[in-house]
Amino acid sequence: MDKQNNEDSNSTSAPKGKVECPKCKKKTKVVLGKTVEHLLTPKAKSKLSCFDGFYYCKTPSCEVVYFSENTILTQKDISVILGAKKGAKPSILCYCFEWSKEKITKEIEKNGSSIALADIKYKMDTIGCQCEILNPSGICCLGDVSKAIKEIKK
């Protein structure tokens, strides 16, 4: 966990407008405090008293996972492997129901198609999902899974 300066890193005010990652300068999205809190390692969590005001960087080549005005969190601060980051193995797409790019690729190679989307939707309807706390982006994975299936089929 890097501190950008010595100011309080636990401010609850989130920057307004488009927010760029401090490292890669790509556009990021705000993430819920409960997402950050749930996915931090105990060591990283102990250094923060507030988990609000963070943004998620999904750029594969960027080391930053979450950042706020005064704090940068990288993969070493996160308790799960980030499938969106370059070199992640397994490359997890659905954290709730354990679908990875590798699993989907094997299924497509064997069967010509994947049941990943149908399986995830069925489970969301029957047992529910916990995307807000299990997925590092804090949002539903269906878009990422759909995109991955299209890319794998190319």
Give the key terms.
two-stranded antiparallel sheet; alpha+beta; N-terminal domain of TfIIb; five-stranded antiparallel sheet; single chain
Description of the structure:
With 154 residues, this protein is of the alpha+beta class. It has two domains: 2-77, Single Sheet (N-terminal domain of TfIIb); 92-153, no CATH class. The protein contains six helices and seven strands; from the N terminus they run ββααβββββαααα. Helix 3 (101-111) packs across helix 6 (142-153). The termini are far apart. Residues 3-14 have low confidence and may be disordered.
Low-confidence parts, pLDDT < 50 over ≥5 residues?
3-14
Number of strands: 7
Q: What is the name of the CATH class of the largest domain?
A: Mainly Beta
Report the total helices.
Answer: 6
Helix proportion = 25-40%
Provide the β-strand percentage band.
Answer: 5-15%
H-E string: EEHHEEEEEHHHH
Average of per-residue pLDDT values: 90
Query: Which sheet architecture does the biggest sheet show?
Result: 5 strands, antiparallel
CATH architecture level-2 label of the largest domain: Single Sheet
Q: Assign an overall shape.
A: globular
Strand order across the biggest sheet?
A: 1-5-4-3-2
CATH topology of the largest domain: N-terminal domain of TfIIb
Please state the structural category.
alpha+beta
What separation lies between the terminal Cα atoms?
38 Å
Global Rg? 16 Å
Task: Please give the domain count.
Answer: 2
